Amino acid sequence: MRSTDHPAALLDALDREAQDWLLRFAAGKANGADIEAFKQWAAVDPVRADAFARAC
């Protein structure tokens, strides 16, 4: 399988970051520090919150 055959390869960097956050939360591996880091990440630019919403 080529890397471009994987759906994540079609995402831009911001969408990959959002997907990484979603996977961390969905796996139940997020702790309080992760939640705070996510809030800071999302607060930088509303586009990040949009990317997270798309990932969801």
* Strand-pairing-aware structural class: mainly alpha
Radius of gyration: 12 Å
What number of structural domains do the residues give? 1
Number of strands: 0
Residue share in helix: 55-70%
Our count of helices gives 3
Q: State the end-to-end distance.
A: 26 Å
Give the overall pLDDT as a whole number: 87
Give the overall form: globular
Uncertain spans: none
Features:
single chain; 56 residues; mainly alpha; 3 helices; globular
Description of the structure:
The protein has 56 residues and is mainly alpha-helical. The protein has one domain. The protein is 64% helix and 0% strand. The protein is built from 3 helices and no strands. Helix 1 packs across helix 3. The longest helix is centred in the middle third of the chain and has 14 residues. The protein is globular, with a radius of gyration of 12 Å. The mean pLDDT is 87.
